[in-house]
Known about the structure:
The chain is mainly beta. The protein contains two helices and 19 strands. A seven-stranded mixed β-sheet has the order 10-9-19-16-13-14-11, with no helix packed on it. The protein has a four-stranded antiparallel β-sheet with strand order 4-1-6-7, with no helix packed on it. A hairpin with a 4-residue loop joins strand 6 and strand 7 (75-78). The longest helix is centred in the first third of the chain and has 16 residues, at 2-17.
Amino acid sequence: MAQRLVGCLLAAASLVTGCKERSDKPIAGLLAAGAPVVRKEGKAEYTIAVGAQLLGDVKLTATGPAVLEYFGGGLRFLEKGDTLEVGDADEAKLHGSNLPSYRWADGGVQEAPRALRIVAARYTNVQVTPKSAHEDAYSSTQYFVAFFTPNGLSRLGSDTKHEGPHQPLPAPPFRPKVPFIHAGDLGEGGLVAVVEDGFAVAETDDLATAVLLEGREVPLGRTVRLLVPDGAEVTLKGAGGAEVEVEGPADVRLR
């Protein structure tokens, strides 16, 4: 009887204090990283891939510049040495971007309405990734499991007979691209960016991202979005030697 009474009192206390367990659903993704971002579990550390989904209770340490994109739209920039529990960030509670929005037009930067995007759909479970399409041992089943099974391999078990396409995937370049955030080249040509202070993040039309570091000239190629953190400064160089300075915070759409 006493044990039952104690249990009831504990349950009532939990209700009063509003205690509840954290959701097991991802709430953010690693948009870009200029150096490894590691997840800590006790004394163990695991490197997180760009494009990975992140749960609220994941503890991160940045070894260089990086940015998280929350599924509500908020952005959290990290620098070397920063530590963070994903769900504790103020940006986790936002609905919409926390950066002023601009667009590149007529050789300059102009204010623009905030862009709407379904953030969660841009990220995936990349704990398991397929082998390169250029390797002979490439498996279409591995490709399907890694990118199209909602929980990767966690709930698949050993029965993969019914997973994957009925026919082998077509050979490159006829295979459709997977529309998820990933680290990659920005491409050649286009505007040239020079980070004068801090760092910036570029995102292309095929969802490749890269961190731009201070003092380097970087062709933006296929970049459609340039993120400039608060306190950072970037010079955009266009055709004919025209230069435009962008001071953070800014979310600039280039096309």
